[in-house]
Each structure stands twice: as C-alpha cells, then as structure tokens.
Amino acid sequence: MDLGTSAKRTSVSSASTSGWACHGNAGASWGLVVDNRLAHRGAAGLADEEGTVSATDTHVYRIGSITKQFTALAILKLA
To answer: Nearest Cα to 29, choosing from 53, 3, 6?
Structure first.
C-alpha cells in the first residue's frame, strides 16, 4: 500500500474521521504502518469523558483496566 501522495493520505484521514464521528464515540488516535514505516496518523473525537479535550494523533491515553481482558485471554490460551 502506497500512501505517498497527499490525496491518498487525505482520503484515509477523511474516511477514518467521518466513520468515527457518526457513531458518537468518545475519541481515538491511530497510526497506519506500511513496510515498517508510519504511513499515516490521525485522530477523531474527544479524548476525555467530559468532552473538553480534543483527541490528537499525539495524545497519550490512560489505559485504565483494559489490560485485564488481554491478561485473561493469555491465561485461557495457556490452559
């Protein structure tokens, strides 16, 4: 996948943000890696529950309790 042109990067960004916003999700940041290189990054929505901070492609999120699901899956795979 080649995202070398500005038009292609704009297309990826537009599709990502419009799809995210229409579902009323809080917010997200993402990166697209192609051939071990960062080809595109973006963000949509709000980064906090209060709705005061916009999500950015450099925002650092608190992970909270999300690791519990991954730990449980790892334990089940070992069983």
So the answer is: 53
β-sheet bridge partners, residue 45: 27
Structure tokens at 65: 């309790």
Contact of 47 with 61, CB cutoff 8 Å: yes
pLDDT at residue 12, rounded to an integer: 58
**Across-strand partners of 30?**
42
Average pLDDT over residues 45-50: 80
Amino acid residing at 34? V
Report long-range pairs for 30-33 (Cβ below 8 Å, ≥24 apart).
30/57, 31/57, 32/3
Is the confidence at residue 3, as pLDDT, over 60? no
**CA dist., res. 53 & res. 65, Å (int):** 21
User: Where is 27: in which H helix or E strand?
Assistant: strand 27-34
**Whether 45 contacts 28, CB under 8 Å:** yes
